[in-house]
Amino acid sequence: MSKISHTADQYRRKFLTGIAGAAAAITIAPGVLLRQVEAAPKAADAAVTDSVRWGMLVITSKLTDGGDKVVQACKKEHGWGDEKHSSTEQQTQWVRKVKVTEKLTKHSFELPVMCQHCETAPCEDVCPTGASFKRADGIVLVDKHLCIGCRYCMMACPYKARSLVHEALQDQKAYSPRGMGTVESCNMCVHRVDEGKKPACVEAEPQAMIFGDLNDADSDISKTLQKFGGKQIRADLGLNTGVRYHGI
Description:
Elements: H1 3-17, E1 24-29, E2 32-36, E3 54-59, H2 68-78, E4 95-101, E5 108-114, H3 122-126, E6 132-134, E7 140-142, H4 152-156, E8 163-164, E9 183-184, H5 190-193, H6 200-204, E10 209-213, H7 220-228, E11 243-246
Parallel strand pairs: 3-11
Antiparallel strand pairs: 1-2, 3-10, 4-5, 6-7, 8-9
């Protein structure tokens, strides 16, 4: 096993099992500091397994502002997109509001687009260090300790859901570590999910967004999808996304 592969496996095991620990500042490159955070599970046996597939359903007709609340909730939760420390062109965006217009009817609507948490994730396939990976429960993440900022994952993502951190980082959230020169995207508020909570964006738009276990036929998201349906963006790619939309 290569040194890189062995290191990747070590970090993944720590993250997947949620070993309890404290946050600490470490250096990943000259002048670059990154907080290392290890989340503590609710119980000793609360390891991540593939028995759960976390997903989100966005009901576009119920969005109150086309996705502005979703974007703002994500910014507040994770601290990205700080206009004070980066130019508009270089601001990171974990989720963005997109306007869609039908060519024939000219009907338009807006919706939030974030990492779609693909079952077959292109970002994971092209990552040379193993920094991009998918947890057993379907959440796609970036290990900032292994990311070298090559941006292959950004080019591979068909949803333009990833961006490189240019902004000067201040007052980071201990539960959401970031690093200048690394790539980041929506992590489905994994720190909240592991505590039994819903992602911040779902709490911001509770009528328009449903979060839950796609593997559980009795979950709210599964029942809603079964009754009303939901579409994938670029379903033709066969990525089996964890984020679905109703009304597109």
